Structures are given as structure tokens and as C-alpha cells.
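quick q for whoever's on today - can somebody do inverse folding on this one?? i tried earlier but teh output was garbage lol. C-alpha cells:
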């Protein structure tokens, strides 16, 4: 099984997300991660979809996505030629005596403490999946009250694959 990260440039129209997720659902393909946002040109949305499968399944996913009329461009973001990032927010139960142990770990990972209350704190961290997983594993020693992840988003390096619209 191989992991594939696809960057889709799609028309920013109502129903486009439904078309894409429906394609995965109808074909029985799993989505590992999905993120979407408007580009610099608000007529278009950039969608990053991460999935896994054998080469035949991954090729079929690309072909089926290319058939959708809202899809303008598809790029596979290969690890050596791309940059991926994800955001995680973690709410921990953190008594004052726990904070002195949590803060140095957060600093090592370059995480930001974005909220503190009398019995909890919220930490924001961005990075690749490995970095996020390592941080989450360390925080499991504390009581994780809530955790939210955005899903991966990414762009290719350099300008060779840039589409000018």
C-alpha cells in the first residue's frame, strides 16, 4: 500500500466538495485526510486529498477525479518535491503544577500556547504528520480533553508546476 497526496485546483462552486467526496464514497475509496480553501483567486479552491492504496487504485482515483468537470488541475505532491503541513489544536487538562512540564515540551516543538484557564490549556502546533504524531504521543501522558486536526495541505516546491490562470 502506498500513500498519495493529491493537490486539486477546482472551480469554487457550490457542490464541488460533494462531487469529490461522493466520487470517493461511490468507488469505495478511503480519504485519509482532506483540506480545502479558497486560493488567491477566489474563483478557485485548492483541495488537498490524502489517500492510500495499491498503484492501480491510486491511478484510478486520479483518473476519476480528472473526469469531474469542476476539476481544473490535479498534481500528485511527491514528498521530495513538495511541502506538507497540518495544524493540530490540543486541549489538555493542565493544573499549574503540570504546566511547568508541558511548556518546555511545547517550546521544543515550536508549538504555541493559545489559551490558558485555571485547569486547562490549548496548544497549537503546525508541521508534518510525523512531528504532530510525536507531540501528541508526548502529550498522552496528560489528560487530552479535546483534539482537532485540519488534515494535510501542501504545495509543490519551485515554480515548474504552477498554473497561471
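ok took a stab at it. sequence:
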Amino acid at each position: 500500500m502506498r500513500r498519495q497526496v493529491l493537490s486539486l485546483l477546482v472551480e469554487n462552486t457550490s457542490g464541488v466538495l460533494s462531487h469529490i467526496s461522493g466520487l470517493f464514497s461511490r468507488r469505495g475509496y478511503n480519504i485519509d485526510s482532506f483540506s480545502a480553501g479558497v486560493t488567491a483567486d477566489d474563483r478557485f479552491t485548492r483541495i488537498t486529498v490524502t489517500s492510500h492504496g495499491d498503484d492501480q487504485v491510486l491511478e484510478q482515483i486520479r483518473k476519476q477525479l480528472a473526469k469531474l468537470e469542476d476539476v481544473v488541475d490535479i498534481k500528485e505532491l511527491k514528498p521530495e518535491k513538495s511541502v506538507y503541513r497540518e495544524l493540530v489544536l490540543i486541549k489538555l487538562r493542565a493544573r499549574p503544577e503540570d504546566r511547568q512540564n508541558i511548556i518546555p515540551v511545547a517550546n521544543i516543538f515550536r508549538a504555541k500556547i493559545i489559551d490558558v484557564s485555571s485547569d486547562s490549556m490549548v496548544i497549537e502546533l503546525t508541521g508534518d504528520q510525523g512531528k504532530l504524531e510525536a507531540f501528541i504521543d508526548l502529550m498522552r501522558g496528560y489528560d487530552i480533553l479535546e483534539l482537532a486536526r485540519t488534515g494535510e495541505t501542501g504545495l509543490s516546491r519551485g515554480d515548474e508546476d504552477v498554473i497561471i490562470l
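fwiw The first strand starts at residue 2 and ends at 11. also The radius of gyration is 19 Å. so keep that in mind when u check it
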